[in-house]
Every structure is written in C-alpha cells, then in structure tokens.
Amino acid sequence: MNSPEPGKAAPPERDRLSASLLGGGSEPDPRFTLANERTFLAWIRTALAFLAGGIAVEAFTGEVFSPGMRRATALSLLILALLVSASACLRWLKVERAMRHRKPLPLPVLVPILSLGGALVAAGLIVFLVYGAS
Amino acid sequence: MLAWRRTLLTLVVVCTIFLRWIPHFGLIALLPIMVSLMACILIQIGLNARYRKSAKGLKQERIPAPLREVAVLGGTVIVLSLLGVYAVLSQ
Asked: Distance from A10 to chain B by nearest Cα, in Å?
C-alpha cells in the first residue's frame, strides 16, 4: 500500500462491503483495476449480444424455424448469455482478489464456455439449414 | 467511462428488442424493459461520480473497486437472461 506524502491526508479506506468481498491485501496499481473493469464490461457486452440474439430469434423467426427449433435456439442463446454474464462477474472478483494478494491471475473459464457454446449453437443451425429445410 | 457508456447503449438496444416480445407475451414483456431501464438510470447517475473518483484515485495511486456498479450491471444481465428463459419455457 502506498503511504501518504507528509502533510497530505491518507486516501480513504474501503467500505465494509468492499472489504469483506475483496478480502485483505494491498491496493493494486489503479491502471490494473481499470483494465479489469474494462474487461468485465467487454464480457458483459458479449453477454448482451447473446441476449439480444436469443430475444430476436424468439421474436422474428416464427416463419423460418419450426417451433421446436426456434425454442431450442432461443434458449441456447439466452442460457449462454446467463453463463457469460455470471462468469464475467465471478472473473472480475477473482482477478481483483488475485491482484490484491499478488497471486497469479485465474484461468479464463469464460473462453471455453463462449467458444463451445457458440460453436454448438452454430452447428445446430447448420444442421437445420442443411437437413431440416429439405 | 466510454466503455461504460458503450455498455449502457448496448443495454438500451436490448431493451428495445424486448419490445418485440409484447405481441407474443403481452404486457409481461415490459418487465425486462423496466428492469434494464432502471439499471441504466442507476449506472448513469453513478458514472460521473465514478469518473471524478477515478481521476482523484489516479493521483493518489489508489482507485476504489467498482463493486456496486459491477453487481448492478452483472445482476441486471443475469435477471434479464433468466426472465428470457422463463418466458420462452412458459410459452
């Protein structure tokens, strides 16, 4: 932790909620905190894109897909949005804690979730387009 | 701050897409719209204060972690996803 300069007030302490959730340790370089925040926001925007896709599939594809296919695709996208947003929050917290205790950053679980989930939905749609429409 | 604004904009776009659910699901589709708009307003109100705190924190080499903002935004997207899943399953 950085000690205040002589004659200057010490920076404010963390509030109780932050102290309990983030644990002890020392404050990291503020640029790392900001970078972690920006990464979280990028993941949330990805989750919102999946959410928008799920809503759009349910609303607009009534005449393109069978009811079962539409429901399955919409549910897959909405569940992906749920997983990505929940993982993004947990990832942010884990990275903040790791930075405060100077531990290695946690492995990104989000990447395989996103890759696999996106690939499965795309594969399902390709199968439908090739075999389902005929 | 720009990253927050981009995210809020994306959230507003998702809100407007939810409007297309009203013919299918009725007025219950307004619930996710209200949830996301409330989250947008709360985050927007805190954004300017957060920017000033960050600028001050950079000088002091200590920035408070945005715990509440992360919780509100993450919680909102989780709730919206759950509402969507519930709406599709209950159809």
From this structure: 9
Closest chain B C-alpha to A33 CA, distance in angstroms: 7
Q: Which residues from A are below 8 Å from B20, CB to CB?
A: 55-56, 59-60
CA distance linking residue A8 with residue B21, whole number of Å: 56
Which residue from A17, A30, A74 is facing B63, i.e. has the nearest CB?
A: A30
**Separation CA B71–CA B55 (nearest Å):** 22
| Cα–Cα distance, B55 to B31 (Å, whole number) | 36
Which residues of A fall within a CB distance of 8 Å from B82?
A: 82
Question: How high is the ipTM of this complex?
Answer: 0.87
Per-10-residue mean pLDDT, chain B, length 91: 87 88 82 88 83 76 82 92 90 73
- Per-residue pLDDT of A83-123, as tens digits, reads 999 999 999 999 999 988 888 888 877 788 888 888 888 88
Compute the distance between CA of residue B57 and CA of residue B50 in angstroms, rounded to an integer.
10
Q: Under a CB-based contact definition with an 8 Å cutoff, are residues B35 and B74 in contact?
A: no
